[in-house]
Amino acid sequence: MKIAVSSSGNDLDSQVDPRFGRCAYFVIVETDDMGFEAFENGSIALGGGAGIQAAQFVASKGAKAVITGNVGPNAVQTLSAAGVETFVGQSGTVRESIVRYTKGEINSTSTPNVADHYGMGSGAGMGRGIGMGRGRGMGRGMGSSTWGGSSQPAPPALSKEDELKGLKDQANEMRKQIEGIEASINALEKK
Q1: Which domains, ranges and CATH numbers included, belong to the chain?
Q2: Strands 2-7 and 25-30, how do they pair?
Q3: Which contiguous run of DSSP H or E holds residue 178?
Q4: Does pTM surpass 0.85?
């Protein structure tokens, strides 16, 4: 069975990326033999709809399940419509998450555990607990509570080193995307 894991890198020893729609990579693992393919996430820089696009992508690759840290309502709906099970609250390496899955140690969910547009930035400045969070502390990062009544625990915080590595990996991927966009712009301007 094929399982898609949101990942900060392109192999089985990469950390699970806590964001689904805006993860750096999707590592799609065949559970029978642990063979895998890694794909850069083309939805990472979208202003909106990243979860939907990511869900459609992993479904198109034949994934029957998704393992991630957090998933929003649009992605959950799209995954569910495609018949893809969703497993949230996961951390560690891609390999470790697949092992937990094959041992039956994690449970699927049909509800999101974060709000729309989670993972678009650092989260600071989104209300700081007032306004969007209505004083419940949901304004910082939006991922510290169980959104939508999910019974899944909040994912553990990444270590400073893991968070730094993930951010550096994302910055490198964004640089590559920007270079590609600039090359396309230059090519079009020369026509």
Answers
A1: 2-122+136-190 (3.30.420.130)
A2: antiparallel
A3: helix 160-190
A4: no
